[in-house]
Amino acid sequence: MDGSSEGQVDMYHLMLQMQLEMQAMRQQLAQMSGQQSSQQPPSSSSSAPPPPLPAPAPAPPTTQPQPSGQCCVCYGEHGPATFGFVPCRHLCLCAHCHQQYKARHDQKVARVQQRNRTRGKKDKPLPLPQYRCPYCNGDAVHSDTLPNLRHWVEQIHTIDEDDEE
After folding, report:
1. Mean pLDDT of 60-78
2. Residue 147, burial from CB neighbour count under 10 angstroms (0-12, 13-18, 19+)
3. First vs last Cα of the chain: how many Å apart?
4. Is 135 exposed, middle or buried (0-12, 13-18, 19+ CB in 10 A)?
5. Distances (CA, A) of 86 to 78, 104, 116, 133, 139
6. Would you list the DSSP string of the chain?
7. For 73-105, what is each residue's pLDDT tens digit?
8. pLDDT tens readout for residues 130-146
9. Which neighbouring-strand residues pair with 142?
């Protein structure tokens, strides 16, 4: 992969990370607003000083929060998250975003394969891009809908005598 492609991938992952952080901040703000409104007593006078602000929330844990059922790319604009990734098990993309995400990955793989075909025989082949979960950026070996993932996991493969060679 050339430097500009790597930069685009890094930029895409940075954008996803920033979107996830923004979503977490919005949820934290909504929780804090809900706590503040429930703590305020009804005021009969508008000249009363405002109540003190609640103490700042504790720092977020070092691990990422689990997805809330919304797509981590469009935040539910195209529908709920219905596609999960293996092995991390994050259910984090809607059908629309999964289709685009998978197509982009397939295009990257095709570009690298094409470059490898045109390289000289002495040149070491370029590594294929890794398929990654867009939520945690971990390596993914498969992505699909939850029912299909369950079916995939439950399939048992036996080793035939012919396969042992």
Report:
1. 70
2. exposed
3. 36
4. buried
5. 22, 18, 28, 8, 8
6. --HHHHHHHHHHHHHHHHHHHHHHHHHHHHHHHHHHHHHPPPPS-TTSPPPPPPPPPPPPPSSPPPP-SB-TTTTTSS-B--EEEETT--EEE-HHHHHHHHHHHHHHHHHHHHHHHHS-TTSPPPPPPPPB-TTT--B-SEEEEHHHHHHHHH---PPPGGGG-
7. 999 899 999 999 989 999 999 999 999 999 999
8. 999 999 999 999 899 98
9. 86
Q: Give the Cα separation of 58 and 80 in Å (integer).
A: 29
- The residue behind tokens 């000249």 is 47
Q: Which amino acid, 7?
A: G
